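JOB MANIFEST
job_type = single_chain_structure
chain_count = 1
residues = 203
[input]
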Amino acid sequence: MARHLKSGFALVALFANGLPCAAAADLSLEVRDGSGRPVADAVVFAAPVGGAAPTVKPHARALIDQVNKEFVPKVSIFQAGTSVFFPNSDNIRHSIYSFSPAKVFTTKLYSGREAAPITFDHAGVVVLGCNIHDAMVAWVYIVDTPWFGKSGADGIGTLRGLPDGEYTITAAAPAQNLPPKVLTLRVEGGAALHSSISLQAAP
């Protein structure tokens, strides 16, 4: 059973033989802008209401490349504790920096090799730039939850394996200057969930 939710609070339950089934559920969140168009590269993540998310070891290795004087990808989302490598696929030197409170760092100028990985150990938004090429910019979301994802060209991001409980679901598209928006959703049973959220451009 699946229910489509426009916003706010939702309750979905799956029953077998008259009894609720405890199982993890997948949530597909459709992110659109104020004009109804799908928003690609929006980050989405879930946090339990009234409790911390379970501790799960983050991915050991994540990558943000530099190609044709651009960060690839421009928007990333990682779990706190993830070490990110920054390969330089250009034939020129780059120097990556961040002044964001969640992670302040600067790499030395380098090319043709990888800089030492940077560990992002605090939740928040980190904006990356290059000391040589001002047009280079990327956004890194660091989250304290194992349930996170990013939307595709269709605007849909999927959160997998949500256990029973109530969650705040956050969506944001920093590359498009769309402020985050949050909805609350309850999961009961293992049925797939579908919801949507509309991000409004900042005035």
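[summary]
The radius of gyration is 19 Å.
The chain is about 0% helix and 50% strand.
exit_status = 0
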